[in-house]
Structures are given as C-alpha cells and as structure tokens.
Amino acid sequence: MTKNNSTIFTCSHCDAQFTKWAGRCLECGKWGTITEEKEKRRKEKGGGSKHLPTKTQTLKNIEGKNTKRTTSNIFELDRVLGGGIVTGSLILLGGEPGIGKSTLALQLAASVSPTLYISGEESVEQIKLRADRLQIKSDNLQLANETQVESICATIKDVKTRFTASQNQTPLAIIDSIQTIYSDDVPGESGNVNQVKACTTKLLECAKSTGTAIVIIGHVTKDGTVAGPRTLEHLVDTVLYLEGDRYHQHRILRTVKNRFGPTDEVGIFEMIESGLKAIENPSASFLEERGENMPGSVVTCLMEGTRPLLVEIQALVNKTSFGYPVRKASGFDLN
Fold first, then answer.
1. Which of these, 69, 72, 155, lies nearest to 109 by C-alpha position?
2. 298: left (phi over 0), alpha (psi -120 to 50) or beta
3. pTM summary value
4. Could you tell me which residues come within 8 angstroms of residue 25 by beta carbon, excluding any fewer than 6 positions away?
5. 8 Å CB contact between 117 and 127
6. Which residues contact 17 (CB under 8 A, 6 or more apart)?
7. Interval 135-163: pLDDT, tens
8. Which ranges constitute the DSSP H helices of the chain?
9. What is the dihedral of CA 292, 294, 296, 300, to 10 degrees?
10. Which are the contacts of 277, defined by CB distance < 8 A and separation ≥ 6?
11. Rounded to an integer, what distance in angstroms lies between the CA atom of residue 270 and that of residue 76?
C-alpha cells in the first residue's frame, strides 16, 4: 500500500530538509528551528487533472510601449538607474549597516512625489529626526511603521488609488528593510530564507499590478551578499550596492543588475552633514589634495562602467626588519 503522506523535517531558518528530527540544524547551526511537516504526494493514474493551455501571441501582434521613467533629481542615482526609476519596477538597495542606505532612501523619498516610506526598523519619530538633520521638507512624503507584508501591499494599493484619482501621479514606495518584513502565509521568524523570498515575491506582484515603483533595502552580510537567499537578486528588476568606508566621505553606488539599463555603472557620492551629495566630477574630487612633482605617486585612469576616473596611486618605501622585503597594498588588489 502506497502512503500519500510522508513526514519531513524542515528548518524554519534556512529551509533545509531532513528525514529525522534534530535539535540543531546541520546547515545553518540554529537550535530549535527544525519542525515536522507533512508532504503530500499525489499520484493519479490516467494523467491526473487537466489544465487549459495558455493563450499565446505572435511577436508582431504585441504593441510596443515606451518605458516610463521618473527622475529622482539626484544625478548620480539617475545615472546608475539608466535615466530614472521605471514605473512598476522592484529595486533592491543593498549595503553594509551604517553605510548610508537609509539616508539615500530618505533623500530619494523627498525628491519623488508622492512617496510612501515604510520602516520596520525605526519609528516615524526617528525618521523625522533624520529628515530634520538632512533639512528635508516634503508635503507628499508619508511615513508608516509596518512589518506585515500583506498590510504593506494593501497600503501601497490604497495610496496608488488615491493619488492616481486625484493628482494623476505614480507613487513610489520604500521598504526599510526586507529583513524585518514577514508574511502570515509562511512560518518562521522575519529575516529567514522563506520569509524573505515570500515577502519579496508579494512586493513584486504588488509593484507589477499597481504600477508602483518599490525600493527595498537589504543588509549585506560579511561575505558581501544580501542577507537572505541569493534568489532575492533574481526576483527584483534592479540591484544596487552602496559601497565605501564608513570612516571616509566617499560612497560608490554600483549597479549589479538592471533590466532597464546598463550594468556595472557607478555613481559617486560624498557623505556630508546634510546627507549624500552627488559628485558630478569625481576625478577632480579624488585629485584635489594632490601636490605637484611628488615622488612615488602617479595618476592613472580607471574605467568604471562608462565613466573614466582619474585616481592617484602612491608608492612608499621603508626599511624592513624582516629577512626579505614585503610588498603590501591598500585600496586595490595586490596582484
């Protein structure tokens, strides 16, 4: 007799599956995350249930549409996006904690009208304090605290309906961050693999159905990837990484994936007291402290995307106490 149900044990944190229960997951190392589940396997003779065929269209019968973009009035951001934010797109903004992701997102929210800023990490009062520090004043910027993705999608649809009917404008939604969002349809705590995948999928469906551009912020782990599954980058339309040293002023916004524009494009920013300032001439900024006829330094040209950058490379020589000389590099690959 064939059993219709088979028992499997699944980790709620990393989605690993096992044939028997264990107190600790062998994949992610978490304790107490393995639960028992029933997997239904339906085996029907005669082909099973029938499905209707999908309607197809020829290429020449499909009407082409021009991609509508909304400019953010931030030159370097529009550059990496390929000219602006595409209506109905899902954008992932990743970066290390404290690098300036929330600051850039708040500046973007103030530049595009109307914008819905939903935060699961900070209260609206804390966002107000950052807005005052950045000297941001906007009448069409709406703030909210919510971590349930179903409520977030309902709020986005409500804002879309109100602003489209009254002002005929396409709103922008910013979610800070995807690791704090959860769905009632998926078991487990927020931030695990299943929750991140499910919430991103629901936000993608909301963006496509309402025509609202959604920006989700994701934290980067120690190995340089967005915390959560690697498939998160495959679900979204555009992937942006904010890089730089938190102890220095310059920030680099890099395009890793873009379905509506070029990839490997970079935008240069400078972190100042009033937020991130776009640098339209980064070569002049990189060489502003360079002196004349300095020994051991040379200016070279590097290509980042379609932009040539002039940078200075310095070579310093010092006596070593080791038996053989040692060569070290800072800022670029030693090889």
1. 72
2. beta
3. 0.78
4. 11, 13, 14, 16, 31, 33, 34
5. yes
6. 8, 9, 10, 11
7. 888 888 899 999 999 999 999 999 888 77
8. 75-81, 101-111, 124-133, 149-166, 193-210, 232-235, 282-286
9. -10
10. 269, 270, 271
11. 11
Which residues partner with 6 through β-bridges? 39
Nearest CA among 11, 188, 13 for reference residue 21: 11
d(CA 284, CA 312): 11
- CA dist 2 and 212 (Å) reads 49
156 three-state secondary structure: helix
Summarize pLDDT for 238-274 with one digit per residue, the tens: 999 998 876 778 899 999 899 988 887 899 999 988 8
Q: Give the dihedral sign, CA 140/102/215/242.
A: positive
User: What is the full DSSP assignment across 79-133?
Assistant: HHHTSSEETT-EEEEEE-TTSSHHHHHHHHHHHSSSEEEEESSS-HHHHHHHHHH
- Spatial CA neighbour of 94 closest among 195, 203, 269, 219: 219
Type of residue at 117: Y
| pLDDT one-digit tens code per residue, 207-241 | 999 989 999 998 876 555 555 546 688 889 999 99
